[in-house]
Every structure is written in C-alpha cells, then in structure tokens.
TrEMBL record:
Protein name: Phosphoinositide phospholipase C
Topological category with respect to the lipid bilayer: Peripheral membrane protein
Organism encoding this protein: Arachis hypogaea (Peanut)
GO cellular component, one term: plasma membrane
Cofactor(s) it depends on: Ca(2+)
PROSITE patterns: C2 (PS50004), PIPLC_X_DOMAIN (PS50007), PIPLC_Y_DOMAIN (PS50008)
Database matches in SUPFAM superfamilies: C2 domain (Calcium/lipid-binding domain, CaLB), EF-hand, PLC-like phosphodiesterases
Catalytic activity, as annotated: a 1,2-diacyl-sn-glycero-3-phospho-(1D-myo-inositol-4,5-bisphosphate) + H2O = 1D-myo-inositol 1,4,5-trisphosphate + a 1,2-diacyl-sn-glycerol + H(+)
Record field: compositional bias (Basic and acidic residues): 255-287
GO terms, molecular function: phosphatidylinositol-4,5-bisphosphate phospholipase C activity
Annotated ranges, domain C2: 448-578
Length: 596
C-alpha cells in the first residue's frame, strides 16, 4: 500500500489522502504489554496465559502457544513482538467460531428435535412469477448445506412426463429427472446428514407411479422408504446419514385442478462483485430490515386469507376433486414423512397423535396468527411432529421473513427462498453456521421438554436475563484490497461505521451502531456494546459494516451473522461476507466477546 492516495475532484483538481496502515488499537497494545516480558516479547508461556485469561481457552497449553508462534513468520522465534501478536489476532487461526469443533450436537435424536436448513421453491432462479426453473439453484443450495429441497411437480405439456415449475405462473419448467439427478450428485457435498425432498404434487396417479419409478431408480439404496404407514417416531439424523427422504401428502384422490395461490416471486439478484456500485430502487442497497416480532407483526402485513382458513400449499380442495381414482401404491410407499392438514382448523392441526408423527405446513402469516393464541400448543406439537413454515404468497420477489417466528415456536423447517439476498437470509446463514455447518442444529431443551411442573415453553412470556454479551468493536481492515478505491466514494476514502446487534426473541432483539470514521480504509472505532439476553440459545449476533454517504444511500461494506451460543469468548477476527453470503478475501473486523 502506498503512503498517499489521490482522488480526482474535477478535471483540474486532485485531493491526496494519507493511507493509514493497520495498527493495533490502544487496548491491544496495553494487553500486549501485560502479557509480554521486559524485552517486549510474548513467549509461549505468556501467550498461553493470554489464551486462558483473555480468550477463555481454559485448556490451552504452552505447546499450542508455541505452535502459534512457530506458524507466524517473524524474526523472534522465542516469542511474538507486538506486530506479530496483532497479526495473530487478525488471522484465520483466531476465528469467532471454532472450525475444529465440527458436528458436536447429539445427532441420535428424532428429526423433530432439530432445526433443519430448509429451502422454498428450490428450483427457481429468481422471482416467483416469471423466472426460469433450473437445477442450478438446487445445486447451489445443497453446496451451501441446505438439507430440505422443495419441488413442485406437474404434468408436462404432453401429459406424459413430469416437470418441475411454479404452477400457474410464467416460470419456465425443468424436467424432474434432471433435478433428481442433481440432488443425487450434490446431496452430500456439504454434509453427510440426510436430505429431505418435499414434493408439492399436482399429478395423476399414472404420473405419480412414474415419479415413484424415477425416484427409486435414481436414488436406489440411499432412499429411505419405511413403507406406506406413517411413522410412530421420526428416525435420527445419525441413522439416516447419506440417505434421501421423501415428504409429501399421501395420495388419496387425483385433483384435476387445485385451487391454490402459489407462493411469491423474487427479483433476480445481481452479483455482488465489489466493483458493482449501489443497487438502485426503493430498497436499501443491503436489503430491508428484518421485520420485528415485538408487539405482533400481523399489522405489518396485508392478510387476504380468511382467519379460519388454514389451508396451505399442500391442502386438497374438497370441491375440486374427481371421484376416487386408484392410488399409486408405489408412490405412497416412497413417502417417509407424511404431510397434510386435518379438517377443523388450527386446533385440530395442532393435536398430537401418540401413535404417529406427521409434518404440518403453515405460511408465515398463518403461524403469526396461530401464535397469538396457540403459542404453547405449537411448541408442544413440534416436540414430536415437524412444522414447516413457508413465505406468504405476496412475496413474489422471493424475499423472506423473520425466521425467529418459526424457531422460537420450535418449527424445524423454516423454509426460505435461497436464490436472493438480504438480512433475513443472513440470519438463516448465521443459524446454520452452528453444529459444524451440517444443516441440522439441535433445538434448545426448553423447546423439546416440558418444565419440572409440566409447563410448556411460552414464546410470549417475559423471561429474566440469563446472560449478557459484551461486544467490543475495535477496528476493521481489508476493504482497500477487496474493492476499487472509488467504489465507496469517488472523491475520498470511505467513511465506515459498524452496526451490531441481536436477532432473537423479541425482548432480546436490538441493533446498535458505532460512529463513522471519516476518510479511512482502516477504521478504528473502539466502541463497546452490551446485550442482555433472556434466551441466548436462540440469539444470533448480527454484524454489518456500511459506508456513510451524505447525499445518497449508505454503501454496503460487509456482514456476518453468528450463533451466540457457539461464540468463542475473547478477541477474535471476524470475516465479513457479501450480500449474497460469499466470504470476502481479506475484509475482517477485530472484535472482543465477553459473557457475564
């Protein structure tokens, strides 16, 4: 990096700015002084003490400390000088989540005991009305770790084969067999744990039989097929490693047509190359804020559904069915997770049958409505059964909702449109960084078991603070290398600020921000924030960097979302990601996390 940087103000005038080099913040310098010897070297014993006392790595050894010293290229083999210590703190060996932790949750419990990484209309490349259907979004989702893929299956134009498309829209179809082959090839690239294919079925019995043949031939022995009867209890992710599971409503009658409002579209997301300028339009460059759950979010939405109508994506229209056709028995035997809604409204839907388990689907609006009255009943239902939540039908731009509305009620499959970007999707990425990124995160015990007096967790109850997370935002670096020097401002270096906060239950949810540091590629904020947490088990730490712009919308400078329950205490290097969730090459923040 040169010592000066020049910006053109007009054809005859230029401004020159001094480029600041990354320098350890005052608190880091003070800490180095405390944990180093008289020769200003941090030896292995000093570093081990720092790792135990500051980083809260209680089992750290001198051998591990020496290995860190040896891994850093510097002149003092006996220890770290200040620059080397600072380099270590900002390195990939000092991340906020421990990569070596891997899958560490108990994976031998029923599927209903886990939050599962779930996609919605997984085949769409963009919006819900007119985008192309393809296997490419399915491949991308699986490579990211998504474990539930949704396919809408329809007869093709000649009624002799099966297409995947969003019905009664202008979306162009893709052949089912192509999607199945891609799932088989990419299912276990990111995780060995099972992939569930949820089918939304609009087929005649003869085509259902054809689907059964396709699925059986494509997946062979890796297909989990327990038979035509509903399961009494779901098997565990561990027992289903590298298996494919089919979930849909068991066929009873063929419907010539299905009166269903299909789910929404989404605008095609542009790439997030650092060289691209701001996104124009009504939305902020980095997307709309996640909807708040405080005080009930129903008022924020225009709901055109009848309150008593809990019919969802998979329901049969009683007035539009033909008289009983022969069931496709081969197709029925494929279905491992039975889906559907009983008649009689939400109270019937939430009844727990001790003899069988099932999957229920509710739209985000239906769940929000039900939660206002039946919150504890929903939690009780999800202790044994699977609840899938999907985006409301007006999200034609493929936007997403606040996933916490599902998670805080125990919903396992919070289905998201994965092809776009935005803050809600960042929360989804954050949740499933947990448990080694395997796509299954064990639900907190309070969602799985009743209390000592038989009480069920009440998502609306006022709870005491369990712990407080103290976050210090020291500084950031890397933008100079990952972005063009005029990306943020044509006439001067950027003015960065950081937003940091919590996404969680309503009482824990908050966002705060630092001051903006003017004209600096290496901003140093040194600001501290405290976040009292009543339910830390469902809290996600949100981090965003923006560049202040007086005349236009602020520019996006990176984001990350981290599961609070897996955060490593201490001073950590936090890599930032693009709007689409891709990791930047060098952009990081130096932060400290403390719990008390």
């Amino acid at each position: 990096m040169s010592s000066k940087q020049t910006y053109s103000v007009c054809f005859c005038c230029r401004r020159r700015f001094k480029l600041a080099a990354a320098e350890a913040p005052p608190e880091i310098k003070s800490m180095f002084g405390k944990y180093s010897d008289d020769n200003e070297l941090m030896t292995a014993s000093h570093l081990q003490k720092f790792m135990v006392e500051v980083q809260c790595q209680q089992n750290a050894t001198e051998e591990e400390a020496q290995a860190i010293i040896d891994s850093l290229k510097h002149f003092h083999r006996k220890g770290l000088n200040l620059d080397a210590f600072f380099k270590y703190l900002f390195s990939d060996s000092n991340l906020p989540l421990l990569p070596s932790l891997g899958v560490h949750h108990d994976m031998n419990l029923p599927l209903s005991h886990y939050f599962i990484y779930t996609g919605h209309n997984s085949y769409l490349t963009g919006n819900q009305l007119s985008s192309d259907c393809s296997d490419i979004p399915i491949i991308k989702a699986l490579e990211r770790g998504v474990r539930v893929i949704e396919l809408d299956i329809w007869p093709n134009a000649s009624k002799d084969n099966i297409d995947v498309l969003h019905g009664r829209t202008l979306t162009t179809p893709v052949e089912l067999i192509r999607c199945l082959n891609s799932i088989k090839e990419h299912a276990f690239v990111a995780s060995e744990y099972p992939v569930v294919i949820t089918l939304e079925d609009h087929l005649t019995p003869d085509l259902q039989a054809k689907v059964a043949e396709m699925v059986a031939q494509t997946f062979g022995e890796i297909l989990f097929s327990p038979g035509s009867e509903a399961l009494k209890e779901f098997p565990s992710p561990e027992s289903l490693k590298r298996r494919i599971i089919i979930s849909t409503k068991p066929p009873k009658e063929y419907l010539e047509a299905k009166d269903k409002v299909d789910d929404p579209p989404q605008e095609k997301a542009s790439g997030d190359n650092p060289k691209h300028r701001k996104v124009s339009g009504d939305d902020e460059a980095w997307g709309k804020e996640v909807p708040s759950l405080k005080g009930g979010t129903i008022a924020d939405y225009k709901d055109n559904e009848d309150e008593e109508n809990f019919d969802g994506e998979e329901d049969l229209d009683e007035g539009d069915k033909s008289s009983h056709h022969n069931e496709a028995s081969e197709y029925r035997r494929l279905i491992a997770i039975h889906a559907g809604k009983p008649k009689g409204g939400i109270t019937e839907c939430l009844k727990v049958d001790p003899e069988k388990v099932t999957r229920l689907s509710l739209s985000e609006q239906q769940l929000e409505k039900a939660a206002m009255t039946y919150g504890k009943e929903i939690v009780r239902f999800t202790q044994r059964n699977i609840l899938r939540v999907y985006p409301k039908g007006t999200r034609i731009d493929s936007s997403n909702y606040n996933p916490l509305i599902g998670w805080m009620h125990g919903a396992q499959m919070v289905a998201f449109n994965m092809q776009g970007y935005g803050r809600s999707l960042w929360l989804m990425y954050g949740m499933f960084k947990a448990n080694g990124g395997c796509g299954y995160v064990k639900k907190p015990d309070f969602l799985l078991k009743n209390g000592p007096n038989g009480e069920i967790f009440d998502p609306k109850a006022k709870l005491p603070v369990k712990t407080t997370l103290k976050v210090t935002v020291y500084m950031g670096e890397g933008w100079y290398y990952d972005f063009e020097h005029t990306h943020f401002d044509q006439y001067s270096p950027p003015d960065f600020y950081t937003r940091v906060g919590i996404a969680g239950v309503p009482d824990d949810t908050v966002m705060r921000r630092t001051k903006a540091i003017e004209d600096n590629w290496v901003p140093s904020w040194n600001e501290t924030f405290e976040f009292p947490l009543t339910v830390p088990e469902l809290a996600l730490l949100r981090i965003e960097v923006h560049e202040y712009d007086m005349s236009e919308k602020d520019d996006f400078g990176g984001q990350s979302c981290l599961p609070v329950w897996e955060l490593r205490s201490g001073i950590r290097a936090v890599p930032l990601y693009s709007r689409k969730g891709d990791k930047y090459n060098t952009v990081k923040l130096l932060m400290r996390f403390e719990f008390y």
